[in-house]
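S.,

Sequence below, as promised.
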Amino acid sequence: MTRRELRRLRELQEAAPPLPDDPPLSAQDALSAQDALSAQDPLSARDAVQQESVPEALPLESLPRGSFPLESLPLESLPPEAQPALPERLPEVSEPYTETDHLAGREIESSEAPVPTPRTIDPDPLPAPTPRVVDQTPPPAPTPPPAVPFIEQPAGFVRPVEEVTGLRGFRGWLHRISGGSIFGPSAEDRAEAELDRRIRRSIGGSQNTAFLSLKGGVGKTSTTIGVGLTLAGIREGSVCAIDANPDAGDLIERALGEGAYESERELTITRLLQRIGDDESRDALNAYLHEASGLHLLAGEQDPELSDSLTVEDYRRVYDLVSRHYGVTLTDCGTGVSRPAMRGILENADNVVVAAGFAVSGAKRARDTLAWLAAHGFGELARNAIVVVTDKDGVSARVDKAAIEATLGGMCRVLISVPHDNAVADGDLISLASLRPDTRRAYREIAAAIVDGYR
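The prediction came back faster than expected:
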């Protein structure tokens, strides 16, 4: 019996007048009462019949303790505080309809049809995720690291593809249109590629090469410029040339041209020593340098009263500053080896280039230079020296060039001859584009030999 039916029965009992000592109804009387009530209220009649099966509520105090379990009592017989809490809505349970019922011929009423259980959704939504707060405050500027000696960085972990350039003429045209399948690189092209590889070789730290001679006019400064431009074109941003000639050297004029240098004559090695500190940055150093086709240059002093004032300590200070920011330093020395700064230059040199000419006097001076180095504690520099013989003056056929090359070549590591070139002999601006191909090739060989001597 449902709770609704119990309530209806209780209302009927309260509405009916009490009848003392009513005898119990017989089965026939109960049926007659049901028929009578059904005519008036079908629900009341059903409740009246079911009332007979509902026991009368008894007080709990009248029951003996432990006589029967409490669960056997009707819920209505318990006081409100003892009744268990019931849910507001009881789920309706119905027998599930299976395929067996259909095969057995069971009649399915509309009330027995399976009712899908509604999906319950938690009314409380999930808490919204806390938004991530990103601190957009810029980090403090890092403290610049202390200056350290220049260390050349490797090109990377991927080996570059070696491209052989210089295929010229019909061979080069046919090689390009065939995708490289016809006429591969010639012996000359392979030699040029090998020179590039030697010049580009990675070196550790900073290296210094000194260009010197005992006689002027043998191509020392022009060789410094030609080799410096060659190195700077391949080893970009890492080459600096220093004019340490105390006799108003013309390194800057030969690299920039006389007109371009006139407007910047105050940027000299003397001014650098006066104004710059020992731990300056590369930008501060570059403010005192000149630049020509990627080659950075420090001009020598042009004032005759100050030109011979460069000391050993002055050069060491300049070289320490330059070597901190450049991987290759080329020092163009003055004529002779007895100048005040010469010992500081040689002590900081990794190798030397001795300039000579095909004139007899020039060849003898080169031989004397190598002998002086060996006799004054620089024997290693003499043995690993690079002798450059420049055909600058166009000597007559009476001079035995082969004998000069053989004599000097036996006193050094390598000897390289530079052919006669008017762009070099004129004593004016030197640019690689203005040189003959053979002259450019000679400067490339000198540059490769210099890098080969770096350890």
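The chain has 18 helices and eight strands.

Coffee later?
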